Amino acid sequence: MFVSVEIITIVISAVGLLLTLGGTMFAGFAWCIRRSDSLRTDLVGVETSLGARIDGVEQRLTARIDGVEEKLTARIDGVEQRLTARIDGVAADVTELKVAVARLEGPQRHLIVAGR
């Protein structure tokens, strides 16, 4: 069987083309994998630094909130004491007022006949 030189050349060039394309695709895929691994490493570093910053901010905010809460609690306690004193004073005044009104309106005297 006789194979011409042109056929052999076409087959060899097709195999070479397939090997070149396969090698290029493999190299491109390997580059993508390596690049994504380096991005993942960079993201881990960024995540670590951001986590530390967020923890620091959280601690400072917690301290500030605790300070504000203590101040507000002290102020509310003071206001509550003043209001309690005022309410007790008003209650005593109302009791005295009720006694005074009761004396003024008291029951009619039965011994005195009311005129018509």
Question: How would you sum up this structure, described in words?
Answer:
The protein has 116 residues and is mainly alpha-helical. 87% of the residues lie in helices and 0% in strands. The protein is built from one helix and no strands. It is rod-shaped and about 155 Å long.
Look at the structure and give the mean pLDDT.
Answer: 87
| Helix percentage | over 70%
Instruction: Give the class from helix and strand content and strand pairing.
Output: mainly alpha
Helix tally equals 1
Low-confidence stretches: none
**Which strand-content bin applies to the residues?**
under 5%
Q: Could you tell me the number of beta strands?
A: 0
Sheet with the most strands, sense and barrel status: none
Please tell me how large the radius of gyration is. 48 Å
Q: Give the overall shape, derived from the CA principal axes.
A: rod-shaped
Euclidean distance between termini CA atoms: 155 Å
SSE order, one letter for each helix or strand? H
Q: What descriptive keywords fit this protein?
A:
116 residues; mainly alpha; 1 helix; rod-shaped
Helix-strand layout with pairing:
Blueprint: H1 5-105
Question: Short summary of the structure?
Answer:
By secondary structure, the chain is mostly helical. It has one helix at residues 5-105.
